[in-house]
Protein backbone atom coordinates (compact mmCIF):
# COMPACT_ATOMS: atom_id res chain seq x y z
CA UNK A 1 0.00 0.00 0.00
CA UNK A 2 1.46 3.40 -0.92
CA UNK A 3 1.77 5.98 1.84
CA UNK A 4 2.38 9.73 1.86
CA UNK A 5 5.28 11.21 3.82
CA UNK A 6 5.55 14.97 4.40
CA UNK A 7 8.99 16.15 5.44
CA UNK A 8 9.10 19.55 7.18
CA UNK A 9 12.34 21.54 7.37
CA UNK A 10 13.57 24.97 8.35
CA UNK A 11 15.74 25.89 5.34
CA UNK A 12 16.75 24.56 1.93
CA UNK A 13 19.58 21.99 2.36
CA UNK A 14 18.26 20.69 5.71
CA UNK A 15 16.23 18.10 3.82
CA UNK A 16 19.34 16.69 2.16
CA UNK A 17 21.51 16.69 5.26
CA UNK A 18 19.12 15.03 7.71
CA UNK A 19 16.60 13.08 5.64
CA UNK A 20 17.80 12.95 2.03
CA UNK A 21 18.43 9.23 1.95
CA UNK A 22 15.14 8.41 3.63
CA UNK A 23 13.15 10.60 1.24
CA UNK A 24 14.88 9.03 -1.75
CA UNK A 25 14.25 5.53 -0.39
CA UNK A 26 10.58 6.20 0.35
CA UNK A 27 10.10 7.63 -3.14
CA UNK A 28 11.94 4.73 -4.80
CA UNK A 29 9.65 2.30 -2.96
CA UNK A 30 6.62 3.91 -4.64
CA UNK A 31 5.38 6.23 -1.90
CA UNK A 32 4.56 9.93 -2.23
CA UNK A 33 7.04 12.40 -0.74
CA UNK A 34 6.13 16.03 -0.07
CA UNK A 35 8.82 18.49 0.98
CA UNK A 36 7.92 21.62 2.97
CA UNK A 37 10.36 24.31 4.14
CA UNK A 38 9.48 27.13 6.49
CA UNK A 39 11.88 29.68 5.00
CA UNK A 40 13.93 30.33 1.88
CA UNK A 41 17.13 30.40 3.93
CA UNK A 42 17.96 33.96 2.96
CA UNK A 43 19.99 34.60 6.14
CA UNK A 44 22.33 31.68 5.53
CA UNK A 45 26.03 32.03 4.83
CA UNK A 46 27.10 32.14 1.20
CA UNK A 47 29.69 33.61 -1.09
CA UNK A 48 29.44 37.21 -2.39
CA UNK A 49 27.97 36.18 -5.76
CA UNK A 50 25.03 34.34 -4.21
CA UNK A 51 24.35 37.07 -1.67
CA UNK A 52 24.31 39.67 -4.40
CA UNK A 53 21.84 37.68 -6.49
CA UNK A 54 19.33 37.42 -3.64
CA UNK A 55 20.20 34.38 -1.59
CA UNK A 56 16.62 33.33 -0.84
CA UNK A 57 15.78 33.00 -4.52
CA UNK A 58 18.99 31.11 -5.22
CA UNK A 59 18.31 28.67 -2.41
CA UNK A 60 14.75 27.96 -3.56
CA UNK A 61 16.08 27.06 -7.01
CA UNK A 62 18.61 24.78 -5.32
CA UNK A 63 15.79 23.26 -3.24
CA UNK A 64 13.86 22.37 -6.37
CA UNK A 65 16.93 20.62 -7.81
CA UNK A 66 17.48 18.74 -4.57
CA UNK A 67 13.83 17.67 -4.49
CA UNK A 68 14.09 16.29 -8.03
CA UNK A 69 17.16 14.27 -7.06
CA UNK A 70 15.29 12.80 -4.09
CA UNK A 71 12.10 12.05 -5.99
CA UNK A 72 9.83 14.47 -4.15
CA UNK A 73 6.41 14.88 -5.77
CA UNK A 74 5.64 18.33 -4.32
CA UNK A 75 7.67 21.17 -2.80
CA UNK A 76 6.25 24.03 -0.73
CA UNK A 77 7.81 27.02 1.07
CA UNK A 78 5.71 28.57 3.84
CA UNK A 79 7.43 31.90 3.19
CA UNK A 80 8.53 32.88 6.69
CA UNK A 81 11.72 34.86 7.27
CA UNK A 82 14.97 33.08 8.04
CA UNK A 83 15.95 33.79 11.66
CA UNK A 84 19.64 33.32 11.01
CA UNK A 85 21.96 31.71 13.54
CA UNK A 86 23.18 34.83 15.36
CA UNK A 87 20.55 34.63 18.14
CA UNK A 88 18.80 37.78 16.95
CA UNK A 89 15.05 37.90 16.37
CA UNK A 90 14.21 39.39 13.00
CA UNK A 91 10.70 40.74 12.34
CA UNK A 92 8.66 38.08 10.54
CA UNK A 93 11.23 35.38 11.22
CA UNK A 94 10.03 31.82 11.61
CA UNK A 95 11.32 31.47 15.17
CA UNK A 96 9.24 34.48 16.23
CA UNK A 97 5.99 33.52 14.47
CA UNK A 98 2.93 32.40 16.40
CA UNK A 99 3.13 28.60 16.59
CA UNK A 100 -0.60 28.09 16.08
CA UNK A 101 -0.65 30.29 12.96
CA UNK A 102 2.29 28.49 11.34
CA UNK A 103 0.90 25.10 12.38
CA UNK A 104 -2.41 25.88 10.69
CA UNK A 105 -0.60 26.51 7.39
CA UNK A 106 1.33 23.28 7.62
CA UNK A 107 -1.79 21.38 8.73
CA UNK A 108 -3.57 22.46 5.54
CA UNK A 109 -0.87 20.72 3.51
CA UNK A 110 -1.04 17.62 5.71
CA UNK A 111 -4.81 17.46 5.20
CA UNK A 112 -4.57 18.09 1.45
CA UNK A 113 -2.08 15.26 1.16
CA UNK A 114 -3.80 12.90 3.62
CA UNK A 115 -0.35 12.58 5.14
CA UNK A 116 0.48 9.31 6.88
CA UNK A 117 3.86 10.41 8.27
CA UNK A 118 5.35 13.81 9.12
CA UNK A 119 9.04 14.32 9.79
CA UNK A 120 10.15 17.20 12.01
CA UNK A 121 13.22 17.70 14.26
CA UNK A 122 13.96 16.68 17.82
CA UNK A 123 13.23 19.04 20.72
CA UNK A 124 16.61 20.81 20.52
CA UNK A 125 16.25 21.35 16.80
CA UNK A 126 19.32 19.19 16.39
CA UNK A 127 22.01 21.73 17.17
CA UNK A 128 19.84 24.53 18.58
CA UNK A 129 19.15 26.78 15.58
CA UNK A 130 16.00 28.78 16.49
CA UNK A 131 14.24 27.91 13.23
CA UNK A 132 14.93 24.22 13.81
CA UNK A 133 13.45 24.41 17.30
CA UNK A 134 10.40 26.11 15.76
CA UNK A 135 10.05 23.24 13.25
CA UNK A 136 9.73 20.86 16.21
CA UNK A 137 6.96 22.84 17.89
CA UNK A 138 5.08 23.88 14.74
CA UNK A 139 5.29 20.38 13.26
CA UNK A 140 3.92 18.70 16.35
CA UNK A 141 1.05 21.19 16.58
CA UNK A 142 0.23 20.74 12.89
CA UNK A 143 0.20 16.95 13.17
CA UNK A 144 -2.20 17.12 16.13
CA UNK A 145 -4.49 19.47 14.23
CA UNK A 146 -4.45 17.44 11.01
CA UNK A 147 -4.64 14.05 12.70
CA UNK A 148 -1.43 12.84 11.08
CA UNK A 149 -0.89 9.43 12.69
CA UNK A 150 2.91 9.17 12.76
CA UNK A 151 5.42 11.90 13.64
CA UNK A 152 9.12 11.13 13.23
CA UNK A 153 11.75 13.47 14.66
CA UNK A 154 14.75 13.54 12.34
CA UNK A 155 17.95 13.59 14.34
CA UNK A 156 21.48 12.15 14.54
CA UNK A 157 22.96 9.47 16.77
CA UNK A 158 24.71 11.69 19.33
CA UNK A 159 27.01 8.90 20.52
CA UNK A 160 28.34 8.27 17.01
CA UNK A 161 28.64 11.99 16.29
CA UNK A 162 30.70 12.58 19.43
CA UNK A 163 33.15 9.91 18.31
CA UNK A 164 33.47 11.59 14.91
CA UNK A 165 34.07 14.98 16.55
CA UNK A 166 36.77 13.58 18.83
CA UNK A 167 38.49 12.11 15.77
CA UNK A 168 38.15 15.41 13.88
CA UNK A 169 39.74 17.30 16.76
CA UNK A 170 42.75 15.01 16.61
CA UNK A 171 43.05 16.13 12.99
CA UNK A 172 42.78 19.75 14.22
CA UNK A 173 39.45 20.31 12.49
CA UNK A 174 37.46 22.93 14.46
CA UNK A 175 34.22 21.03 15.15
CA UNK A 176 32.17 21.90 18.22
CA UNK A 177 28.82 20.60 19.46
CA UNK A 178 26.58 21.54 22.36
CA UNK A 179 26.28 18.68 24.87
CA UNK A 180 22.52 18.22 24.38
CA UNK A 181 22.63 18.32 20.58
CA UNK A 182 20.69 15.68 18.67
CA UNK A 183 19.65 12.44 20.40
CA UNK A 184 21.34 9.82 22.57
CA UNK A 185 21.40 6.37 20.99
CA UNK A 186 19.27 4.90 23.78
CA UNK A 187 16.40 7.23 22.82
CA UNK A 188 16.39 6.51 19.08
CA UNK A 189 13.62 4.40 17.56
CA UNK A 190 14.60 4.23 13.86
CA UNK A 191 17.81 3.70 11.95
CA UNK A 192 17.12 3.81 8.22
CA UNK A 193 19.59 2.13 5.88
CA UNK A 194 20.03 4.54 2.97
CA UNK A 195 23.22 3.14 1.45
CA UNK A 196 21.37 2.31 -1.78
CA UNK A 197 20.26 5.96 -2.01
CA UNK A 198 23.64 7.62 -1.49
CA UNK A 199 23.94 8.74 -5.11
CA UNK A 200 20.63 10.59 -4.76
CA UNK A 201 21.67 12.03 -1.40
CA UNK A 202 24.99 13.24 -2.77
CA UNK A 203 23.20 14.84 -5.74
CA UNK A 204 20.78 16.58 -3.36
CA UNK A 205 23.65 17.91 -1.25
CA UNK A 206 25.50 19.08 -4.36
CA UNK A 207 22.40 20.95 -5.52
CA UNK A 208 22.86 23.37 -2.59
CA UNK A 209 26.03 24.87 -4.02
CA UNK A 210 25.53 28.25 -2.33
CA UNK A 211 25.98 26.61 1.06
CA UNK A 212 29.43 25.23 0.36
CA UNK A 213 31.08 28.67 0.60
CA UNK A 214 30.92 31.72 2.83
CA UNK A 215 31.74 32.25 6.49
CA UNK A 216 35.00 31.68 8.33
CA UNK A 217 34.37 28.14 9.62
CA UNK A 218 34.45 24.78 7.88
CA UNK A 219 31.19 24.38 5.90
CA UNK A 220 29.58 21.04 6.64
CA UNK A 221 28.17 20.58 3.15
CA UNK A 222 31.50 21.31 1.45
CA UNK A 223 33.29 18.89 3.77
CA UNK A 224 30.77 16.10 3.16
CA UNK A 225 30.93 16.44 -0.61
CA UNK A 226 34.72 16.17 -0.52
CA UNK A 227 34.68 12.88 1.36
CA UNK A 228 35.90 9.80 -0.55
CA UNK A 229 32.94 7.62 -1.49
CA UNK A 230 33.75 4.82 1.01
CA UNK A 231 33.87 7.35 3.86
CA UNK A 232 30.75 9.11 2.58
CA UNK A 233 29.01 5.72 2.65
CA UNK A 234 30.24 5.01 6.18
CA UNK A 235 29.19 8.38 7.61
CA UNK A 236 25.96 9.00 5.67
CA UNK A 237 24.66 5.52 4.98
CA UNK A 238 22.20 5.66 7.86
CA UNK A 239 19.63 8.20 9.04
CA UNK A 240 18.01 8.36 12.45
CA UNK A 241 14.59 9.21 13.84
CA UNK A 242 12.59 9.19 17.04
CA UNK A 243 8.95 8.20 16.57
CA UNK A 244 6.65 10.10 18.92
CA UNK A 245 4.88 7.69 21.25
CA UNK A 246 7.05 4.67 20.37
CA UNK A 247 9.08 3.08 23.15
CA UNK A 248 12.78 2.89 22.26
CA UNK A 249 14.04 -0.64 21.77
CA UNK A 250 15.53 -2.52 18.85
CA UNK A 251 15.99 0.06 16.14
CA UNK A 252 13.36 -0.08 13.39
CA UNK A 253 14.38 0.19 9.74
CA UNK A 254 11.00 1.17 8.25
CA UNK A 255 9.43 4.63 8.62
CA UNK A 256 6.00 3.11 7.94
CA UNK A 257 6.33 0.26 10.44
CA UNK A 258 3.70 1.57 12.89
CA UNK A 259 1.21 2.07 10.06
CA UNK A 260 1.77 -1.42 8.69
CA UNK A 261 1.31 -2.87 12.19
CA UNK A 262 -2.15 -1.29 12.42
CA UNK A 263 -3.41 -3.08 9.31
Structure write-up:
With 263 residues, the chain is α/β, with parallel strands linked by helices. It has helices at residues 14-28, 48-52, 55-70, 99-113, 125-128, 130-146, 158-170, 198-207, 220-225, 229-236, 257-262, and strands spanning 4-9, 32-39, 74-80, 117-121, 150-155, 190-193, 238-243. A seven-stranded mixed beta sheet has the order 3-2-1-4-5-7-6, with helices on both faces. Helix 1 (14-28) packs antiparallel against helix 8 (198-207) and helix 3 (55-70) packs antiparallel against helix 8 (198-207). The protein is globular, with a radius of gyration of 17 Å. The N and C termini lie close together (10 Å).
Strand % is 15-25%
The largest beta-sheet arranges its strands as 3-2-1-4-5-7-6
Shape by Cα distribution? globular
Q: Helical percent range?
A: 40-55%
Q: Helix/strand-derived class?
A: alpha/beta
The whole-angstrom Rg is 17 Å
Number of helical segments with 4 or more residues: 11
- What is the overall pLDDT average? 89
* Main pleated-sheet profile: 7 strands, mixed
Number of strands: 7
Distance between the termini: 10 Å
Sketch the topology as an H/E string, one letter per element.
EHEHHEHEHHEHEHHHEH
